[in-house]
Amino acid sequence: VAGLGNYGLRGTRHSVGMEVLDQLARQLAVAEGWRVDKRCCADVALATAHGLELVLLKPRRFMNLNGLSVASAAELYSLGPGDIYLVHDDLDKALGKVAIKLGGSARGHNGVQSCISALQSNEMTRLRIGIGRP
């Protein structure tokens, strides 16, 4: 599960994917387990939920390069594009609205496009978090 955003610009609507991952880590009782993994240039926490082993990932790159971290982690943990969930902001959804998208285009989102390019696939599931238009 990758929370897309601009590392270092926390608290902005554009980095809501990372905020969601922080909340998920708290709910799964692994919030203290975040560690820097230089192999994929990301903060990583491992968790278990409903019998599934999860890799929580917050890339330490700007949004348009998040895919490099996601692809590196996918290789490290032997994950295919269909195993990956991207959590990211969506300008076209009202603030706080959430939707799941299975594969398809990036719809103009640079972080998602970076992941599609780096993984050479668009099969990732996306959790789109509405941030509304300014």
TrEMBL record:
CDD domains: PTH (cd00462)
Database matches in Gene3D superfamilies: Peptidyl-tRNA hydrolase
Origin superkingdom: Eukaryota
Keyword tRNA-binding carried by entry: yes
Keyword entries, A-Z: Hydrolase, RNA-binding, tRNA-binding
PANTHER family xrefs: PEPTIDYL-TRNA HYDROLASE
Protein's UniProt name: PTH hydrolase
